[in-house]
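Troubleshooting log. The previous structure file for this entry was overwritten by mistake, so regenerating from the original sequence record. Sequence copied from the archived sheet and checked twice against the printout by T.R.
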Amino acid sequence: MQYMLLIYNCERPGPADQGFAEALAAVNAFADECRRRGALVGGAPLQPESTATTLSVRDGRTLITDGPFVETHEHLGGYYVLDCPSLDEALELAALCPMAAVGSIEVRPLAGVPGLDHRPVDLATTGE
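Regenerated output below.
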């Protein structure tokens, strides 16, 4: 089963900040452990919530708002998708994630929807 690890409320140093190399090494070690277990599907940090654009369509009209959808004290900073045999292993890996020590990680199973096609584009066949 695939699980999404949603990483909340963790400040991370930028490349020019003191502690960046140490933080990067810890995150890369976590990704290496997930790969070693055959669990890492993907993941990425997100830009700050101030860069968000929120879109909704109501009565045929597209509404676009700069910024996050709602005011909240919890900010989504990144994610991982892991393929684990059980929730227990997903939780074990989430506890190893270095961001768990400074923020929180929501672990949520991905829903399987029959007939849903979310295959990514194959750039090798599109010529891009």
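The chain has a mean pLDDT of 89. Archived copy saved in two places this time.
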